[in-house]
Amino acid sequence: MILSEEYLQSLLDKAYPQIRSVADCAVVLEGSIAEGFGNSSSDIDFLLIADSDADLPTMPSLLFVDGRRVEIRTRSVRQVAEQFSAVTAAAAGRPGAAPEDLLNRCQRLLRSFPLRNPELVAKVKGLMSFDDFQDTAREWWAHAARQSVRYALVLRQLGEEREAAAWTEAGLLQAVKSWAAGRGEAYLEPKWLPMQLDRIGDHPLCARYRALASLDVSGLDAADYVTEGARLAVDLGVTGAEPEAGRITVARAGAVTTWQTGERVHVVRGQQDVFVLGDRAARAWRSLVFGRTLEQTLATAQVAGVPQAGPLIAQFLRFGLVRAAWKGEGTIVPRMPLAAPSGDVTPPPSTARPVVGIGGAAAGGAEAVDLVPVPARRFSAAAMTLVWSNVLVENAREDLVGALDRGQWSVAQLSARRMLRFSLRGVLSAYAVNPLPPDSEVVRRLSLLPAAADLDEIRASAPSLETLTVACDTEGAAALAALDDFVALVRRATGAHSFPSSFGSSDGWRQTLEIGYDWLRLGAHLNADLPIDEASDLLSSGGAQPHATSV
């Protein structure tokens, strides 16, 4: 160790009065200094072990003694025994299953240096063989390395060579940690790997690893670095990641569903996140056939009009919309042990506005895989309300025209106000305001929306339209013209310019039902609130009028 036992005992004596100690406990030094690593900035890590079955705190206490940081942790014998048992059980289940922190805690104790009550220290260390532990650590690191190298091979085949090289670098570190653990160097923290290799000594594999420790050090291009890294991983004892054609397949990701509205493709992840795909991304997505090899997948995308689709498929992988699998051995799940928790990437929310249109969410470009900036249920509820608002606008206009034709001025004035307010429901829904404010507030709640030329014009026009009077033919004609212009403005601003004239013909009503059905299916899947009770009938009829014959 870099510190003497006498100095450590002195630090312990000075730290003891500052903590609530346990009578007759054992004390060990663990961590990098106990391993023979460490430096002047390293913490002094003391573990107090109580000969009891108590539940002692797992959180350390941090003290400052003689200019050194001193961490003090506590465990009872029962807690130590449970830790060892949990590691053994996890290792028996599958390689890599043991939680990182638990594995780290066990290793630190097994390689600790006794300072007080050595008999009790020997007792708890006897609960697990260090030979068994290092076998567990070796398999744990090998599992991580196998997944990392496999993922690097996936990314290289998808044309993402630089990212593939980064995962190769991670996989090689994990592979050499596995190899070192098999030689007794089972300390988990990667930062001391150079010193671990120094202790192993002059070995050809150490030299090869140092020459390939990173892409920059290797002097290779990214694609060749992945190849050489995979070879070294095999020589370090990591099997099952050899570069072989046809081993990598595209697999379905759990809880991922595709929803198409018109020409727009949406992908819902975990019933929470909605991704909207641009035109090229959508063609690549629709070309995927799960279970096919990556070679077949890229060829199929080429036929579908998406050459060089690899980067798009890689984006689907990052976002957890699809998975890569190693044929016969399940999904590839790369991870970086002892790093920040990782998982499916969630990109920043899209800034495209409006959020939702009749034909789907706004996409930022042909290759966009954009995260819609609202939760899935709210997105679908807003979309259904947007469609229904446009239906109500059509209905209110029909009422207005009929009232003007009969000179029913009071009915016409109410219909004009309904036409305005229903159109504003659509504006707010397009920007994912859901639930909506009461109709009496929709004009004032336009203040919730961002600044934009179309929206500013809508905000400027709406107050005067809300106070229109209709008391004669001239005022009625003017009101209808003004409202038609306003609805056209709203529909341009919300992507609803192609909304059919719902009540003008059978064809218009059929188109309306088709639009509504697309969104109702998504809403029902996400258990979102339907805009009206009758919408459930449209769902049960498969998008057809419930009483219509099939002729």
Number of strands: 14
Poorly predicted sequence stretches spanning 5 or more consecutive residues: 532-551
Number of helices: 20
Shape: elongated
Strand order of the largest sheet: 3-4-2-1-5
Q: Which percent range describes the beta-strand content?
A: 5-15%
* Class computed from helices, strands and strand pairing: alpha+beta
- Give a short account of the largest sheet: 5 strands, mixed
State the end-to-end CA separation. Answer: 90 Å
List the helices and strands and how they pair.
Layout: H1 5-15, E1 26-30, H2 32-35, E2 44-50, E3 61-65, E4 68-76, H3 77-93, H4 100-110, E5 113-116, H5 118-125, H6 130-157, H7 161-181, H8 193-200, H9 204-211, H10 215-218, H11 222-235, E6 248-252, E7 256-261, E8 264-269, E9 273-277, H12 279-286, H13 294-303, H14 310-318, E10 322-326, E11 330-331, E12 356-357, E13 360-361, E14 369-371, H15 376-406, H16 409-430, H17 453-466, H18 473-494, H19 506-525, H20 535-540
Parallel strand pairs: 2-4
Antiparallel strand pairs: 1-2, 1-5, 3-4, 6-10, 7-8, 8-9, 9-14, 10-11, 12-13
Helix pairs in contact: 3-4, 6-7, 6-11, 7-11, 15-16, 15-18, 15-19, 16-18, 17-18
Organism: Streptantibioticus silvisoli
InterPro entries: NT_sf
Protein name: Nucleotidyltransferase domain-containing protein
